[in-house]
Design a protein that fits this description.
The chain is an alpha+beta fold and 178 residues long. It folds into 2 domains: 9-104, Alpha-Beta Plaits, CATH 3.30.70; 124-171, SH3 type barrels (Roll). It contains 3 helices and 14 strands. The chain has helices at 20-29, 69-77, 97-104, and strands at residues 9-15, 33-35, 38-44, 51-57, 62-67, 82-85, 87-88, 91-92, 94-95, 124-127, 136-142, 148-153, 161-165, 169-171. A hairpin with a 2-residue loop joins strand 7 and strand 8. The longest helix is centred in the first third of the chain and has 10 residues, at 20-29. 13% of the residues are buried.
Length: 178
């Protein structure tokens, strides 16, 4: 009888409300590999109305764990912070390694998942909302440690530089005329 290959797979873990970190820490303490992707989320200050950017879960109330379900399903299911292992038809749902690798490949130096298209200097962008909605500009630079970018407006003869939230712009096809 030969050596049996590992049957460890990635599974989706549903956690209790705001218990993602607790579940992941407890699973890690049990030597279970976990993945809990986070990204920057916008949170308005209820008192001032100002927008703050904070680290938050990419999938609230969910995390990923890699384990052998035949051996550890019961233990995982009863780990503090874990609500359940996601199942379809009563069978734990396996997540393809490629999906985990894809998300992990989008993690920046800050440990957060980068969302959206990476802009390069000179890329044409369109403002998606606000008083300058539908104005076309050229991406100039990203402001360090913020979600803001500087763009040069091309709809005005002298091309003023404006600073705007990166979520408020989208890259446009270079075939589109200014």
């Amino acid at each position: 009888m030969g050596v049996e290959s590992s049957r460890e797979n990635w599974y989706v873990i549903r956690t209790g409300a705001r218990q993602e970190e607790r579940a992941v820490n407890n699973l890690n303490a049990s030597r279970v590999e976990t993945f809990f992707p986070k990204l920057k989320v916008r949170r308005p200050n209820p008192f001032t109305g100002a927008t703050n950017w904070v680290s938050g879960p990419m999938f609230p109330r969910y995390a990923f764990a890699r384990f052998d379900a035949r051996r550890l399903l019961h233990q995982i299911s009863y780990t503090r912070g874990v609500h359940s292992v996601v199942r379809f038809g009563g069978v734990p749902a396996i997540v393809d390694d490629a999906i985990i690798e894809l998300i992990q490949g989008q993690i920046g130096a800050d440990g957060l998942v980068r969302m959206g298209v990476e802009l390069k200097v000179g890329d044409r962008v369109r403002i998606k909302d606000g008083p300058l909605n539908n104005f076309i500009g050229v991406f100039d630079y990203r402001i360090d440690h913020t979600s803001r970018v500087a763009i040069l407006l091309t709809a005005v003869s002298y091309q003023p530089r404006i600073v705007i939230e990166s979520e408020s712009i989208e890259k446009v096809n270079s075939a589109i005329g200014l």
